[in-house]
Write a structure and sequence with these properties.
Order of helices and strands: EHHEHEEEHHEH
Number of helices: 6
Strand content: 15-25%
Structural class: alpha/beta
Distance between the termini: 33 Å
Number of strands: 6
Length: 151
């Protein structure tokens, strides 16, 4: 299995230099360490698609991405303090509270949850960059069983 279970990354450099992002990463780092989950942070200047592809090649199964919604710079403030969690094999992702993401990663890595379970619990987040890497194998309606995410 992969040496790293998850990667943390900002959507781009503008998010990467945001104070809220930096604080969020500190929290995620300490929570991941507390769960003994190996992770790395990829805040290189490469596009998000290139970083997904690179980490897919390294075999890292999960990616936590912090975007403009996460740090509250987009109009929809209801999405503040949420991140996206992407699964390598399906190239699909869900939006999830930053407070729940590490626990979810821990359950996925210890097989207490399947990715299908996660898709049922949280709202699927469409991401073109992610789906292009997977050759579009992210199926429409994969999260059909899921209602709205819990707030």
């Amino acid at each position: 299995s992969a040496p790293y279970k998850t990667i943390i990354m900002p959507l781009d450099q503008r998010v990467g230099s945001n104070d809220k992002y930096l604080a969020m990463v500190q929290t995620l780092r300490s929570q991941l360490s507390a769960h003994a989950i190996n992770y790395k942070v990829d805040d290189s200047g490469a596009s998000i698609g290139k970083r997904y592809a690179r980490n897919d090649e390294l075999g890292i199964p999960l990616a936590i991405t912090v975007d403009f919604d996460s740090v509250g710079t987009n109009a929809d403030s209801a999405l503040a303090n949420t991140v996206t969690l992407r699964e390598r094999d399906t190239c699909t992702q869900v939006r999830i509270s930053v407070d729940e993401v590490v626990d979810t990663v821990a359950k996925l890595t210890t097989r207490k949850l399947t990715w299908a379970d996660v898709q049922n619990l949280y709202v699927e987040q469409k991401n073109t960059a992610s789906e292009q890497i997977g050759g579009g194998k992210a199926t429409e309606g994969a999260a059909a069983g899921g209602g709205a995410a819990e707030s």
